Amino acid sequence: MEHPIFSLSTKPDVHIREYEHKGVRITIIPSKLGLATIHDRDVLIYCISQLVAKMNTGVPLQKTLHLKAYDLLVSTNRNTDGRGYEQLIGALYRLSGTRNKNQHQDWRHRRNRRVWAYRIVEDYRQTASGRMTELRINLSDWVFNAVAAREILTLHRDYLRLRKPLERRVYELGRKHCGHQDEWTISMELLKKKCGSASEDYEFRRLLATICKEDAEHSHIPDYAVSFDGNNVRFSNRKTMKALPSPDLTMFPLLDPETYHDARTVAPGYHVHWLESEWRGFWVETGKPELKNPDAAFIGFCKKRFLESPNP
Q1: Helix 201-218 and helix 188-195: axis angle, to 10°?
Q2: What is the pLDDT of residue 145?
Q3: pLDDT by residue (tens digit) across 120-151?
Q4: Looking at beta carbons, which pairs linking 301-304 to residues 24 or more positions away fall under 8 Å?
Q5: Per residue in 240-252, pLDDT tens?
Q6: Which residues of the chain have pLDDT under 50?
Q7: Count of H helices and E strands in the chain?
Q8: What pLDDT is recorded for position 66?
Q9: Tens digits of residue pLDDT in 93-112
């Protein structure tokens, strides 16, 4: 949810998009039907939920999912008529056709650069038998590995009821950056960049002000109240999320799933779970000191490790 790889457009977006932030450069290349949209992401969310359900029951995970299209449509709050099925197949086409290329530049060693390209969905197959349509979806390694490592965040169920693309993206960023904090503030300029909006500044400001006004009247943005003063956007936690378990300091500190993403950013090339194992061992060796913010402590450890040895 950190980077805007999904289009906010409700019309086919066939332009190649470039995004760069803190040493990460992403090129998003569309299919003939356009870029994967933020509403197409519903399909990915459903697939991830199926993998998590299997993982929680101890079923071995596989990249290939066999799904009933009807169940997917109902779960993602979509129409189950003919048009709903057509839109679903269009979403799968865009998800499998859009290609993302990520480049990460090491800020200390300009010659060190990592590049990788991937699709969100590798491929899919549709089988129709009477009125029942079954799908076989092969997820990319990028998605599968993130789920297997539990590097995912839960979304409020009402997220799927948000119809405006910008509303969805605003919530995603609040969920990612504010999380369980009381509040989080971001400038309008940076929020626009993280949203991946192609609108002019004045138009983005107008759209954002409308969302905040409607949220103030109806509290329709899940988990967070969103307000805008013309320059900055504030996310205030509604305290509707299930609280994180309190860390037992006789056990290992808990980490937020998004922390692993941040760790990869500050220590490129390192395997984050190896770093976590080393950090936890260091924590035990130093007498299990109280950590007011385990996530920040782990990120600090990763930064120090990378500075000491940039080559893993």
Answers
A1: 100
A2: 86
A3: 899 999 988 766 689 999 999 888 888 888 88
A4: 301/275, 302/263, 302/266, 302/267, 302/270, 302/272, 302/275, 303/266, 303/267
A5: 887 654 444 444 5
A6: 107-109, 245-251
A7: 10, 10
A8: 92
A9: 999 999 988 876 554 445 55
- What would the 3-class secondary structure string for 252-308 be? CCCCCHHHHHHHHHHCCCCCHHHHHHHHHHHHHHCCCCCCCCHHHHHHHHHHHHHHH
What are the CA-CA distances from residue 268 to residues 26, 101, 111, 122, 284 (Å)?
Answer: 16, 16, 13, 25, 25
Question: Which of 286-305 are b and which e, b meaning 16 or more Cβ less than 10 Å from the residue's Cβ?
Answer: eeeeeeeebbebbbebbeeb
Half-sphere exposure of 15 (CA within 13 A, CB side): 11
pLDDT number for residue 43: 95
Q: Residue for token digits 């697939």? A: 47
Compute the Cα dihedral for 264, 267, 271, 272 and give only its sign. Answer: negative
Nearest to 29 by CA among 79, 126, 100, 83: 100
Tokens at 26, concatenated: 């992403």
Instruction: Give the DSSP letter string of 64-126.
Output: EEEEEHHHHHHHTT---SHHHHHHHHHHHHHHHH-EEEEEEE-SS-TT-EEEEEEESEEEEEE
The half-sphere exposure of 44 on its side-chain side, counting CA atoms within 13 A, is: 29
Q: Set out the domains of the chain in order of their start, with CATH numbers.
A: 17-152 (no CATH), 165-237 (1.10.10), 257-308 (no CATH)
Structure tokens at 138: 């092969």
Q: Cβ-count burial of 53 within 10 angstroms (0-12 exposed, 13-18 middle, 19+ buried)?
A: exposed
pLDDT at 107: 43
pLDDT at res. 312: 64
Encoding tokens for residue 135?
């799908």
pTM: 0.76
**φ, ψ for residue 209, nearest 5 deg:** -60, -40
Tell how strand 132-139 and strand 64-68 pair up: antiparallel
**Partner residues linked to 72 by β-bridges:** none
